[in-house]
Amino acid sequence: MRLVLLGAPGSGKGTQAARLREHLQVPHISTGDLLRAAVRAGTPLGLQAKAVMESGGLVSDEIVLGMLEERLTAGDTGNGFILDGYPRNLAQANALDTLLARLHQPVDVAVQLDVDTELLIGRLAGRAQVEGRADDTPEAVRNRLKIYDEATAPVVEFYRQSGRLVHLDGVGTMDEVFQRIVEALAPTPDVG
Ligand code: ADP
């Protein structure tokens, strides 16, 4: 199964993706993780991305697409993948469809985890204390949430219009949300 996970920062995409990876036995591909690894490794791409990421902005579409193509052609996605953190704007959504059409691996479903903004702010503040991520400062968090509303929310419509969207309530325990996803992905039993 080829699945895209959509949701605001703090909506639990990363947590659910890690579980889905076990459940579906397909790789979890997080563009945030790929970028953070590039920053840690000090690659030219990482050096370019670092400041933008710390401010909570979006790394250029071109850089992220190149990195993603490299990852998607690594040879381990024959049974599918879980994409987390991409696409984040309409240009990326279109670029992804084009890339995956070329690879004969179109997206089957986009799962949106819906979480209220107030709750997101609380979760990200909590995570900031525990993990100390450079982009969990209050200013960067504000910026990330704003970008989500302005640039990423239209991506939800993109998948809805092409009949590939599953919209889910992302509020609840990790287990509850996971169950909702698994149920939504299960094939609908034949009635009659
Ligand atoms: P979150 O969704 O919690 O904000 P991520 O780990 O998905 O965290 O992403 C962290 C940062 O990495 C983003 O704020 C952005 O700077 C960069 N990034 C990740 N994915 C993309 C993408 N598809 N396009 C542009 N920038 C991205």
Structural description of this entry:
- The chain is of the alpha/beta class.
- The protein has two domains: 2-26 and 80-185, Rossmann fold, CATH 3.40.50; 28-73, no CATH class.
- The chain has eight helices and five strands, in the order E-H-E-H-H-H-E-H-E-H-H-E-H.
- It has a five-stranded parallel sheet, sandwiched between helices.
- The protein is globular, with a radius of gyration of 16 Å.
- 31% of the residues are buried.
- Adenosine-5'-diphosphate (ADP) binds next to helix 2 and helix 3.
Question: How does the SSE layout of this entry go?
Answer:
Elements: E1 2-6, H1 13-24, E2 28-30, H2 31-41, H3 44-55, H4 61-72, E3 81-84, H5 90-102, E4 109-114, H6 117-131, H7 138-161, E5 165-169, H8 174-185
Parallel strand pairs: 1-3, 1-4, 2-3, 4-5
Bound molecules: adenosine-5'-diphosphate.
Adenosine-5'-diphosphate binds next to α2 and α3.
Task: Pick out its properties.
192 residues, binds adenosine-5'-diphosphate, Rossmann fold, alpha/beta, globular, five-stranded parallel sheet
By CATH, the topology of the largest domain is Rossmann fold
Q: Main sheet: which strands, in order across?
A: 2-3-1-4-5
Largest sheet: 5 strands, parallel
Poorly predicted parts: none
What binds here, in terms of ligands, is: adenosine-5'-diphosphate
CATH class of the largest domain: Alpha Beta
